[in-house]
Amino acid sequence: MASLPTCSAAELTPLLGLAANATAAADYICTRFTATADQFTNTTYAIDNTYLLFSAYLVFAMQLGFAMLCAGSVRAKNTMNIMLTNVLDAAAGGISYYIFGFAFAFGGPSNGFIGKHYFGLKSIPSSVFDYSFFLYQWAFAIAAAGITSGSIAERTQFVAYLIYSSFLTGFVYPIVSHWVWSSDGWASASRTSGSLLFGSGAIDFAGSGVVHMVGGIAGLWGALIEGPRIGRFDRSGRSVALRGHSGSLVVLGTFLLWFGWYGFNPGSFLTISKSYGTSDVFYGQWSAVGRTAVTTTLAGCTAGLTTLFSKRLLVGHWAVTDVCNGLLGGLAAITSGCAVVEPWAAIVCGFVAAWVLIGFNKLAEKMKYDDPLEAAQLHGGCGSWGLLFTGLFAKKEYVHEVYATGRPYGLFMGGGGKLLGAQIILILVIIGWVSATMGPLFFLLKKLKLLRVSNQDEMAGMDMTRHGGFAYVYHDEDGSAQPPPGFMMRRVEPSSASPTPNNNLTSNVV
């Protein structure tokens, strides 16, 4: 909202004439005017905080999407384990981000590397931050931890989740978010103290690098140090598919994540009532919020369709789980530039993101890298592409609206290479920082025998060995209900022999 005009009794009195009570009338009018202006200001704060809180709720709902996606992508014998880790990401991440993380990320004034105020939310609310901002940023932090948990699923000890989740959300992630989103950060396009990186700063509007690359690179190191799951590659090194047990949960999780992305990307404006001061009164930040939702949608749709037809050509069938991952890859990629690109450019972003994911999956298979959810390839690979995409396609008008006038913009849009250079530097530094922090942590956990479960536990499934039972109950626990005649549960093993007729009802227990 534009700043409201002020009222001065001294200026108003001569306009009221020479009446004896002109001064008193002017004072009264200005008092009422000021009260009305204050009410407008309060309403603006209320609208913006409500908008931010609603966006935070949407981003937090993505944890349910992560949980469903993870559950459907693992085998049934590990469902309880992966669901519990998603709950843990939110709970442990909430405490660590409250005590340390928020201060490291946004505790200004500080230096370009790390924040140093607001530990335990001290001095909040203030003129700079309210509680809604903390909640929103916490939802982002636990999203990064949720990405990592998918990479190391089905073979990781529970204590390792506790340690890495707290460390990632309380230290590693907040440092990166300080670099890019704090007004003091060395790479921030919103920096108010010191010079901008290449006179531009890196544009990562909603977190292709800050959230997705951080979570993806952390997961990459965890999966590399742990090694692949038992049976993922045979003795000759050929890939063996260990398919998730529920495509339905994968689809449900994908739609929940897609829905939450409308808080992730449009919500990153933080406010909605800001006017851009143009002659068109209908155009303001509320319009930019809508445009961002459109670019987010188009990138995801394009990536999903591209994956659908590409996988049909490559493997010969319509793969729903691959389409879901492709769609999420497009969403991860557009997250960086969603606010500063045209809708048509978002289609380009999604198309390329689909092929980036396919290419990284092929590379992972050749390198015998095992990531049950393709998290490192999807979030790390597509997140990197998203940063590069912004440096190529950011539009001058939108960059000046969201950040400041006179800033460099996309190379392909005539803005030169400064923004692209800043994006490349950010990609390299994020890879280096996460590798230097999370790599040693996972290596230390491995040396202390706190990282991977035993072979026996992995083969039996962690639901039974670590969590007290399977996620799915196939019979009444009190035994009162009897199975129908001829019902038999048995393990169905792969066989090269031709199937023979069997009238018995069977159930897969994987």
In short:
With 510 residues, the chain is mostly helical. The chain contains 15 helices and no strands. Helix 6 (208-226) packs parallel to helix 13 (418-447), helix 8 (285-315) packs antiparallel against helix 9 and helix 9 crosses helix 11 (375-393).
Q: What does this molecule look like?
A:
This protein is 59% helix and 0% strand. It has 510 residues and is an all-alpha fold. The relative contact order is 0.12.
Mean pLDDT: 88
Strand proportion, as a percent range, falls in under 5%
Helices, by number, come to: 15
> Based on DSSP secondary structure assignment, what is the total number of beta strands?
0
Radius of gyration: 27 Å
Low-confidence stretches: 476-481, 497-510
The best one-word shape is elongated
Kindly report how far apart the N and C termini lie.
58 Å
Question: Mind sketching the topology for me?
Answer:
Layout: H1 9-12, H2 22-73, H3 79-106, H4 131-151, H5 158-181, H6 208-226, H7 247-264, H8 285-315, H9 320-334, H10 343-366, H11 375-393, H12 396-402, H13 418-447, H14 455-460, H15 462-466
Key structural traits:
mainly alpha; disordered C terminus; 510 residues
